[in-house]
Amino acid sequence: MTDSCRDIxxxxxxxxxxxxxxPSLEAIWESAVLTNGGLFHQRFExxxxxxxxxxxLCLFVNGTIALLTALQxxxxxxEVLTTPFSFVATSHALWWNGVKPVFVxxxxxxxxxxxxxxxxxxxxxxxxxxxHCYGRPCDVRAIQDIAGRHNLxxxxxxxxxxxxxxxxxxxxxxxxxxxxxxxxxxVFNTFEGGAIICPDEKTKQHIDDLKNFGHADEVTVVAPxxxxxxxxxxxxxxLLQLKHIDAALARRAGVDARYRERLKTARGIQCxxxxxxxxxxxxxxxxxxxxxxxxxxxxxxxRLKKEGIHPRRYFYPLIxxxxxxxxxxxxxxxxxxxxxxxxxxxxxxPIYPDLEMSVVDAVCDLIAAP
Length: 370
Ligand code: T4K
Prior knowledge:
Elements: E1 8-9, H1 18-31, H2 39-52, E2 56-60, H3 63-73, E3 79-82, H4 89-96, E4 100-103, E5 125-131, H5 140-150, E6 153-157, E7 165-166, E8 169-170, E9 177-181, E10 194-198, H6 201-210, E11 215-217, E12 220-221, H7 232-263, E13 269-271, E14 285-289, H8 297-306, E15 309-310, H9 337-343, E16 346-349, H10 357-368
Helix pairs in contact: 1-7, 2-7, 3-4, 3-6, 7-10
């Protein structure tokens, strides 16, 4: 390592120069409007929608509350097909809506395998909750085809997919609703935050009501909504972050390329292929530590940590292995063989805009000679 005292985490949040943020803070203090759709909220919502190429977008306090609200807005009930290979918030959002997750196995793309979807549908199935894992787009066409034939809603947990595009534009346009996270660990952060991409103004209005306790106006409550509003502080930061996001993505691309170059000859290490025809966001750098690697994935994980490098095993354990879900029939490991295997092989290496190439090289040296 260039600096052996320094710990290197899987990510380090990008922030604009502090002096750029001060005028926004002064404006917030001056106006005393702190939340509830203030000026920064309005400006950020509009600017973000434009950046993402979305016509309608609702800002949220975080991605989890946005997911919860998206499911509520679509009146999802009964059972929902979802992936076990995600952050636990994906299934928790179903649980909070009183909906039973039905886990469907993934394929080598790390996303839900559309070929496994149809067999999991029952008369109680109302929706598919898929995740663009690591920002790699799902097979949206196959998912939509199945959803269309079975009259199911489609919600994309796009927490990892900020700025990801496919052949036709933003990947966020797919499904009934897409949900973003702007948590500190994400490609684009507002400290904490999230958003729902909506297809039309009416849906946006409904979701805006739901995130404000269900209040449609001062005296009308249309649904048991939640407090999901983004505050002015986070909105002001988001507005500033937009100025820097393209440069940050370009630096991430450089780190991604260096890892690929340096790891291509490491025996037993597999970098996930970039998704063809898509423009990614380099949100994560997952590798698979295969059986022909000299040591087990967890041994590598601990060796790196001993050297001050802190990769993460996203996503291990699988959601279906957590106590509150493992009793479900669909959580059986023989139903999820690919997810079970990949979850025990995956390691997400540090990636963030400021990561020095010398550190990337040091990580690769440690991996190449464990
Ligand atoms: N759906 C999906 C697919 C998701 O991945 C997530 C969140 C959600 C939904 C829910 O969205 P939010 O409600 O969070 O908006 C993190 C995050 O807490 C979580 O947001 C994220 N996914 C998940 C994949 O990772 P941890 O517990 O693994 O990360 P944590 O807090 O240990 O942070 C990792 C490293 O990053 C730290 O070791 C150091 C560094 N770090 C972290 C934070 C928070 C910083 O340097 N500064 C920071 O402020 O969960």
